[in-house]
Amino acid sequence: MRHYNLKNKFTKFLAIGILSTSVCTLPSCEGVLEEDVISKIGTGYINTPNGLNDGVNAAYSTFRSFYGTERGHNLTIFGTDTYTNGSDGGWKFMNFYTSQFDSRNGHVREVWNDFYEGINTCNAVIDRAPEVSGMEAAVKAQRVAEAKFIRAHHYFILTQLFGGVDLQLSESVIPSKEVSRASISEMYAAIINDLEEAIPDLEASTSSSDYGRATRPAAEHLLGQVYLTKGYSEAKASGDFANAESYFQKVIDDYGFELLPDFEDVYRFGNEMNDEVIFSIQYTRDPLTNGGGNNAHLYFLMEYDIQPGMQRDVANGRPWKRYKPTEYTLNQIFSNRDMDSRYHKSFVHVFKSNKPGNYNTTFDKSKSTVTFAEGDTAIYLPGYEMSEAERATKPYQVLTPSLYTDKLYPTLKKHLDPGRADKTQAAGGRDYIVFRLADTYLLLAEALMKQNKMVEATATINTIRQRAAWPGMELAMQITPVQLDMDFLAEERARELLGEQKRWFDLTRWGVLVERVKMFNPDGAPNIQDFHVLRPIPQNQIDRAEGGSNAFPQNQGY
To answer: Can you give the pTM of this predicted structure?
Structure first.
């Protein structure tokens, strides 16, 4: 079960120039006329078999605007109950929910523009495919299905972020200012239709040389998530949760995906192509085809590199100090560490000295100096309070919870990228996992809960909890139906999926974003308001619409 290896194929179609000249022509796309056309090949290239293939590859590249980027993380990690801001970065207002978070926000504009570029590329593929000759019918049908998958994904993300948006289902060849906001019902109808039409023509599984393409289980996972989210929305219908259950169950039953025995192995470096991964975004080590790269390795790191005995290196990462776990995450979500291995396996607990010598201590004043040889423990994070007397017996600095700051805190290690060329490189090359089987199980449990199938939902959650248990604690990790409610599900999803660009979507789907930020994120609590469950429509989109805000109204509150 491998997808398509697109690592070195993303930029080819962009370089040829069709996106530069005709695809990014919606009023949401900036700088169309300023794009450099690298080749003289015109828009007719997409009407050839190679052109159609390259068009789909170009559409895949727009996933990189969201997954593994700072904008994607800020839109999904910041301003939630699990993470608040670290010391650095200029986007803290997205966690604070201040008035700076407005319609001029660069992150929402960039995602909007890039996704619409991808959507129109998909529209071009879908519209022109019937006229392409010399291409095997099954291959052509598969490429069209992939384009529908990508288009559905992008519209689903846009709908969750903004509500109803401009619903374009045919290619825009020339610029137009005639746009409008579709209803939520219209958005979901189009998304579901795309995925239902795509599923039969997508490959159930492909060879390792095809890693990266959308497959049937990827589309079914996405469709299940669409139905689940729709079931909470104003467009909800009576069968939404049952439909979600059906699609999630198919992914679990029909394709041979397996939970890895060890939770930590899911994100182990070098193991990105594993049997739990349903769909991932492809990055590469080639700077010519990697764009900005997967930057997720930068954001969750504490400032280890100026501490005694330490200097920045590739293995420990380049600490941008963007996201600090909340006390709720550390003390409530991961409270059962004696049974549940995920706290230990999610965070870095020891930093080994890579700069030997004698030093004065910095944060741990239980001793005045420390001395390190190469490879000695320099920093230890026990995850609990340790008395000053006990800390004084240790030949290294001990960072306890009472000593955490906006620069010193537990480092999430899921996204670390020791394969970077050097310690300054920001453009990482690891694939970014978007859908994985553990998430499918948890989403299935949620769909079952919403149908009051509590016994089945509990058994589904226990499958995940059993994998997470320390050896010998499997039975203790099992819960009963009486223990399962939405609060428990919220914590279980956080334990399993922390830092994986899921949380903001979860909280808004459940309708508890404002409530939980006020409870658990002290930096966001003073300013968050009910309207923050949607993001602001980019102002330049409104300005360029025929009729302005009357034709394309801004979301309330912005």
So the answer is: 0.93
